[in-house]
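Hey L., structure's done. Input below.
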Amino acid sequence: MADNVKNKRFKLANSYIISSISITFVLLILGFFSLFLFNTKDLSVNAKESVIVTIFLKPDAQQGEIDVLRNQIAAENYCKEIKLVSPGDALEDLKDELGEDIVDVLDHNPLPTTINLNLYADYSNTDSLQFIETDIKQSSIVDDVFYNRSMIYQLDKNVKKITVVVLVLEILLLLMATSLISNTVRLLIHSKRFEIKTMQLVGATSKFILKPFLITSFWHGLLSSLFAISALIIAILYYQSSVDDIIKIGHLEEVFGVVLLAGISLTVLSTIFSVRKYLISSSEDLFFN
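Output:
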């Protein structure tokens, strides 16, 4: 008798370990995807805000007029960063880029004074840039406004495509996680279906029967979430150094929150539905479900 009890406890503990590993693996995938999702958004923002709008000023523009224009643009909502580039600074940059001094060829510096403007991501699109260009060109000291129109168009188009694809993948992954966790919990509850029905037949209320299962599922989901978060932290620390120059991995609090919330809520909800299924089933149905 004692051996049978030990054997049952061993099987139950083994079932919980296997289910915890399964849930942890699902939550780990969800965590990696959430990490990708949040940081992909940052990448698109950084790409949009790295676009430079170059404002060419007329040769006869006075310093006072230039300062007024610069301050006006800096006060606009679309301006993230603004930099005044003198002809001398532009010449030095070109010299570093080309490896030779064009003054030696032309005998003069042909480069005008320019203003380099970086926009906030919300304004770095074709429609907003057309409005901004028109507005800036109203100044009498502005000769021309240049930005890479084709790059802006492609960037705007690709970001919208990526957003739609990521949204669809997110929904599919959540559905997959819900299904896998639900099936895992259902298998655990299935082994106790006769115990549930016996308690119900002797007069135990549904709340009384459900309570210990909810407590167990809460800790089950919490521990699985913490295991998944720990695995995520280890992976991030391992790969951070290799991708640090490309992208700063951020939004860790949000990612950990998603994993924790998904682990606990999906496990608890699956437990509620599984237990209620056997509460409303007849005794005969237990042999076939």
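The chain has two domains: 2-46+156-287, 52-147. Residues 2-46+156-287 form one domain.

-- N.
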